[in-house]
Amino acid sequence: MYQPTRSVVTGASSGLGAAYARALAARGSDLVLVARRADRLEALAAELEAAHGIRAEVVPADLSLPGAGRALREAVEGGVDTLVNNAGFGTHDLLVDSDPRLLEQEIAVDVAALVDLTRAFLPGMLAAGRGAIVNIASTAAFQPIPRMAVYGAAKAFVLNFTRAVWAEARPHGVKVLAVAPGATRTEFFDVVGTEAAAVGRFQRPEDVIRTTLRALDRTRTPSTAVSGRANAFAAWMTRLVPADTLTRMTGRLVERD
């Protein structure tokens, strides 16, 4: 069983981030909880300290700012052996109708901050010869998604970036894992603004956490874990469909209601 000692969780104020924090605390890990909403982080930290006897630090941060990962690493004193890059959001609209500033923030949080955080915390894990980095991708990563062009491309980046770093870190005893959930009951679709972006049956955050921990518990942790059998099958099937056909099919699935 993977036993974290001190974990950084981004986007920890709700949804998957809060669920990861609870699961890691249950395994005895101290926590560094990161998000913009300090009040929610404080409430979660108090809950987990009382329930599990761990220490939970709160670091309010806007990960859309340049250099956010390095700034966070400087703010967090001491060692960290687990990083969950969960922060992220999606948009749902034709590219031509999208707010350019919102797209910039989407790329900054979903891509740039994830890379910066991974680069900032990985050296300490390599030096210690242990640890884990969990990057939250999505089943959106396995095909282009019209009306969610930036989100799908961002998650494809996360998936391939994580697989490459997995190969680099594996010989040094560090686990690097891309987790690809499908539609999950969190605030994600409230931010997106429509459930038309959801494909397939909704999962619970606990389902995604279970998939993640099962992968981390393996002696040879894979580079990728897709949450849910139906989602895993659908991701595998994307290899068999011509790219343009797949893109048109996906576009029809996520059209507005």
Widest sheet, order of strands: 3-2-1-4-5-6-7
Largest sheet composition: 7 strands, parallel
Give start-end ranges of low-pLDDT stretches.
none
Helix-strand sequence: EHEHEHEHEHEHHEHH
Individual helix count: 9
Top-tier CATH class:
Alpha Beta
The CATH topology is Rossmann fold
CATH architecture: 3-Layer(aba) Sandwich
Helix content: 40-55%
Description:
The chain has 9 helices and 7 strands, in the order E-H-E-H-E-H-E-H-E-H-E-H-H-E-H-H. With 257 residues, the protein is α/β, with parallel strands linked by helices. It has a single domain (6-253), classed as Rossmann fold, CATH 3.40.50. Helix 5 (149-169) links the parallel strand 5 and strand 6 (175-180). Helix 1 (15-26) packs parallel to helix 2. The longest helix is centred in the middle third of the chain and has 29 residues, at 100-128. The protein is globular and about 50 Å long. The N and C termini lie far apart (44 Å).
How is the secondary structure organized here?
Elements: E1 6-10, H1 15-26, E2 30-35, H2 38-52, E3 56-60, H3 68-75, E4 82-85, H4 100-128, E5 132-136, H5 149-169, E6 175-180, H6 188-192, H7 205-217, E7 224-226, H8 229-237, H9 243-253
Parallel strand pairs: 1-2, 1-4, 2-3, 4-5, 5-6, 6-7
